[in-house]
Amino acid sequence: MIRNSGYDLEAAIIGCCLVLDKDVVNEIVRLVPSDAFADELNNECYKAILRLHRKGRAIDRLLVCVELKKVLDEDKVDKSRIYGCTIAFPSAANYKSYIDELLELRGIKL
């Protein structure tokens, strides 16, 4: 698999959504559009996070996998990759920098 140049940033942002508090998730969802995620599974994962967020539901790696299975075939839901996002970011304190870098890479202006 050839990964896009923003794959690690995408995974870090998803990881932040999966483990950080609601205020951080609210900010990420407000700032980052789903089209910022070029990797197919990362894009679907982020869309699942958005759906859960809109419904006011809890967001964690298990619940995101359950949500993904509603729209993807079971074999497309790579739990180990999704679970790996929770360790993909070196520092939770840097989530804003991850957002800035990804948006800049994708040419998305706020």
Query: Would you identify the CATH H-level superfamily?
Result: DNAb Helicase, Chain A
Annotated CATH topology: DNAb Helicase, Chain A
Number of helices: 6
Q: Supply the CATH class.
A: Mainly Alpha
Distance between the termini: 31 Å
- Poorly predicted spans: none
Proper CATH architecture: Orthogonal Bundle
Kindly state the number of beta strands: 0
Estimate what percentage of residues fall within beta strands: under 5%
The figure for the number of domains is 1
Shape, principal axes of CA atoms: globular
Radius of gyration, in Å, reads: 13 Å
Helicity range of the residues?
55-70%
Mean pLDDT across every amino acid position? 93
Largest sheet: number of strands, sense, barrel closure: none
Describe the protein's architecture and organization.
With 110 residues, the chain is mainly α. It has one domain (7-106): Orthogonal Bundle (DNAb Helicase, Chain A), CATH 1.10.860. It has helices spanning 7-19, 22-31, 40-54, 61-68, 79-84, 95-106. The protein starts with 6 loop residues before the first helix and ends with a helix.
Structural key phrases:
about 110 residues; mainly alpha; 6 helices
